[in-house]
């Protein structure tokens, strides 16, 4: 029993010692392994190599469509409407007859004025011949000088009577013509406010109908005067210059089939809104744009030469609000650049300071990179889209320029 107890006591003492030795060996092996691991290689990052392009500065502004020309149809003589000769909502031509006023009174006045003119012309002929005869007779004392002077005066008065009769005839002709109310412009006519049998009066307030020319059509838009001044400071007089193309976006989000053209920028600022009015002329052959319709106008107000575009995911902000990007510097090491990114163009930032063409900007793998770390750059899997309307090429033609730049970077 004593020997058995001694054996058990020995086993109980040696077991904890063996466990402690095994644990020490394990910890030593782990420590030696950590110190003996080979250093990690450069981090894989996706980069985009910057290239200079011409970028349009576009703005999308609210506006409303207004007719190119508007004619309110009003009577210029009074009378009873005999006929209405147009279909409401239809198209009319310039000079087309719209209303016929009873012309009987005006026709009678015209005929009377015509007869008065004929009478005056006949009287003129008689007095002219008399004046000519008296002119010959007075030289031989066949008539007195007084009779000669009276004959000359009567002839001159007859000439004045003829002129007055011609003016009265012309006035009667105009009034007769005004009994036919025609359209002064071509366009679409609205509803009629009168029907046959209505009595019209000169100078009445309500128009009989309204004709509007809708092709082309105006789109009046407004822009903040402060923003327009900022654009002019940045880009000079090219900002807001007339003649630039404008794309019209309709209320349902679709784009108008034909682009418009900026006609002018007003020189007066609205005191109530602080905005400047701009007018765009838009072709409208199918009458998709109607007066009063709310639209949005997308227009290029300036163009930046040799611009650098950086994907938005590559730009971050410091606690001070400074914009920074991570680039691949010399020796393929990551470095931070403070940049000036003032505006967005599509899904990219327009950078005016801090970068140069040829810089490789890191857009993928930023979370595993610190300044000064070695990196292994390759072309980014998702390349940024080049904004539409880039000067010198279409959007589809410009996109490969960025892709090729990134591919060239990967091949280095």
TrEMBL record:
Record's subcellular location: Cell envelope
Disordered: annotated segments: 388-412
Start and end residues of each Multidrug resistance protein MdtA-like beta-barrel domain: 216-301
Any one of the GO BP annotations: response to antibiotic
Domain Multidrug resistance protein MdtA-like C-terminal permuted SH3: 306-368
Keywords in alphabetical order: Coiled coil
Pfam families per record: Beta-barrel_RND, BSH_RND, HH_MFP_RND, RND-MFP_C
Entry annotated with the keyword Coiled coil: yes
PROSITE patterns: PROKAR_LIPOPROTEIN
Location of the Multidrug resistance protein MdtA-like alpha-helical hairpin domain: 111-179
Coiled-coil positions: 110-137
Family per record: Belongs to the membrane fusion protein (MFP) (TC 8.A.1) family.
Descriptive protein name: Efflux RND transporter periplasmic adaptor subunit
Species assigned in the record: Chitinilyticum piscinae
